[in-house]
Task: inverse folding
């Protein structure tokens, strides 16, 4: 596990990108296109296997359960993407500054069915327009 060196408490929209390579466990964290931190040896050689469930906005205290409402994300999320490769620093900066829009080849927010639970609402959002 890693605590990301990112702050999102100013009430504004931010672009966040985290890269990770299973080959060596190298990770980098970017906020608004600027690298904020990096590390190595994070779960090296432990690939993410298919068939799982990705839970967004809620910490689980045990695998697949024991959710505590006080640990819920409160805010808005948009345009989650996953790639099968590590994006370059230039690609990340271009995404963050609306110079282009890459669509994740593993998962794309626009293509996946998102299930909403706990009174959530889906709203239209175009960050670069």
Result:
């Amino acid at each position: 596990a890693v605590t990301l060196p990112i702050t999102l408490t100013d009430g504004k929209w931010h672009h966040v990108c985290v890269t990770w390579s299973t080959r060596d466990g190298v990770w980098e964290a970017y906020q608004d296109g600027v690298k904020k931190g990096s590390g190595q040896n994070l779960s090296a050689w432990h690939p993410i296997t298919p068939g799982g469930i990705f839970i967004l906005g809620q910490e689980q205290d045990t695998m697949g359960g024991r959710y505590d409402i006080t640990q819920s994300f409160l805010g808005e999320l948009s345009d989650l993407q996953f790639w099968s490769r590590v994006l370059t620093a230039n690609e990340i900066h271009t995404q963050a500054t609306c110079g282009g829009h890459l669509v994740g080849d593993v998962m794309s927010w626009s293509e996946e069915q998102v299930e909403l639970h706990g009174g959530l609402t889906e709203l239209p959002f175009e960050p670069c327009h």
Q: What stands out?
A: DSSP finds one helix and seven strands in the chain.
